[in-house]
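FAQ: What does the model actually see?

It sees only this:
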Amino acid sequence: MGMIMGRKTSFLVVLVHWYLSLATILCMFTYCHGNPNVLCRKRERAALLTFKESIVDPSNQLSSWIGEECCMWKGIGCDNITGHVIQLNLRSPYDPYTAYEDFERLRLGGLVNDSLLGLKHLHYLDLSSNCFEDTTILSFFGHLQNLRYLNLSHACFVGGSPHQLANLSNLHYLDISDLSLQIDNLEWLSHLSLLEFLDMSYLNLSKASNWLQVMNMLPSLAELHLSACELDKYDPIPYVNFSSLVVLDLSSNWLPDSTFDWFQSLTSLVTLDLSENYIQSPLQAAFQNMSCMRNLYLSYSNLSSTMLNLLCNVSTLERLDLAYNNIQGVIPDAIGSLSRLRYLVLSGNGFEGKLPRSLGNLCNMQFLDLSDNKLWGDVYGLLGNSSACIVGNLKHLDLTLNKLSDLAQNQIHGSIPSLSFGNTIILASNNFSGPLPLISSRIRYLDLSNNSLHGSLSPLICEHKDLSKNLLSEELHDCWMNNSQLEVLNLGSNKLTGKIPSSFGSLSTLMSLSLYKNNLSGDLPLSLQNCQYLEIVDMSENHLLGNLSIWLGHSSANLAALVLRSNRFHGNIPQELCHLNLLQVMDLAHNKFTGSILRCFGNLSAMVRLDQDTLAYFSEILTVHGNPLSLVTKGTEHEYNTIDTIGLVTTSIDLSSNDLIGEIPKELTNLNGLRYLNLSNNQLHGKIPDNINAMNLLESLDLSMNNLTGVIPQSIANLTFLSYLNLSYNNFYGRIPSSTQLQSFSALSFIGNHGLCGPPLTPNCVGDDTPLELHQDSGWIDMKWFYMGMPFGFVVGFWGVFGPPAFNKAWRSAFFKFFNGIKYKLFGDA
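And it is asked to produce this:
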């Protein structure tokens, strides 16, 4: 019996022990506090929230930082087992080089709170492309000793040499490029022995002459970027060992000739960028041991013709950029021996003569740019020869700004070459003339713009994309039925006539349609509603007419830019346009639209909030499609072309020069992301909405030549980005609101409003919001109040004079003595 009891007791002890162990394990995974489903550590969540409090976040990047589960917040990464925060990525989505305006306006700012020190397990920290105010912040980063990745580039940090970073002995990746640091010694870097990636580009290292010595002490370094660091000297060292270095960027420096003496140790180098240097010494020895070299960038480096001949022996090359050097003469035939070459740029040199046929042997070539040279003559060997294997993979060909001429007969021998390769051909801005050549439907992007191609259009035009700015004439053929893969069509700036073909509706994958500046007429064909992927539609400056089709709002959900200015459209603007949630440019100016401005325009979500996804969407489609977008902004027409403005992002509504009536709907002020608004030259009345300042990104506002009235709201002074304002020729009155910005505008911005006063106008205000000269109706109202007030004024005046003598004896005696005295002086004793 005792044995049984003992066994039961032992079993219970084991059971209890097992239960307690399980509870302990569960407690570990749920942290014995709060919601058991929350992975985030409470202290680390508090540290992040304290950090957030000191951050200025104009684009609401940290809007997800609410609730208990910080591991689900944007930019936060946690260990899946321990729940510790190990990653903080707040890199700005706005690139300072390709989207500078957005980078300046929408990046994070404020102070970086040292509460980040509470994230003791942090491995990854990226605060790049923001602009923080704290000038001493670099010092505490040295206490985050578990960091393996640190990126502080383009973040406005300033100060001295960041020697505290020497404590980060686990660091593998360091990017402190484009900061305002005063660095005169790089010895602290030698303590980061595990460093594999280092970018210090755009730092002034002219006083840090030990840079080569320090880099030589980093045995694991594989990628080094020292672009634009003013490396015009260095302390010599007896031995250089960069055997682990794979990528080296020394571009935009003034490297001394002795630099290239140690290049022979770069035996593992795959990518070398020496562009924008002034290289005077011969480089033959420098490239002797670079048996792994694949990518070589030497543009703008003062190189001579011998350099290209030398590089024709580097058989491993896949990318070669020699743009804008002093290389003269013909392109050597030996270039055809670089069989691995995929990317070749020889633009902006002095090459002349014919294209070498050996280029046709580069079977792996994908990107070829020979623009801005003096090439001429026969292109048949490159483009038309069926034995030239270059046509197999070529995707981009740019022969712009040469002297290649007349595809039909002139200097090309034999038949017209058939362009049957790749997906991108750019032959713009040459002297091509005659009819269009035979071109394969494989080509996805063809640019023959800015030439003199002319004559009637053959059905061949139905196969291709950019034939803008030529002299093409006659009607568009109704021949687009077999082009289901066409994505971009640009026939702008020609002399095309007739109606838009109904077969355009067969272009089911079309994303960009540009027919601007032609002589097209008629209605928009209903078949266009089949083009459900349209993102850009530009049919401006034609003779199109009719009501605007409602299908635009139903069938074109991806539409980002709708430009129909300077046509003959009439009727009400259809409410269906309010369904275009991705619309960022709407230009319906110079038509005959009637009715009022739609209140639902305030719901155009891509203009309500300029968030990261919307910015990226519009930037991408402009960059990919490459079609110029002609818009009138700030009173001037601009052609936005992604060749010149990569990453352009704009938001604009232009309804000017129509017959619109009614008031400016207050719902328009919901468009917090709108930059350009033009409602001028209509018949609008009423007041400017009081909360106009809610449109806080507005850069241009034109309400001129309407019948608007009332005082200009004081809130307009809060539009800090406003650089163009035109309120002329309305019926505004009162004082112009005071602000440095508003008073900086010309008086022409307010001319034609006879009731306005105050700077920049010359009439001074008698009082706040006091009209100087109102229209006739307002004058009648004032006269009515004058006559109504006369009896009251008479009574007050009468009793003010005669009341005191009537009720006060002393006043009465003085009163009559005064009048008796006057009587005596006037009439004497008579």
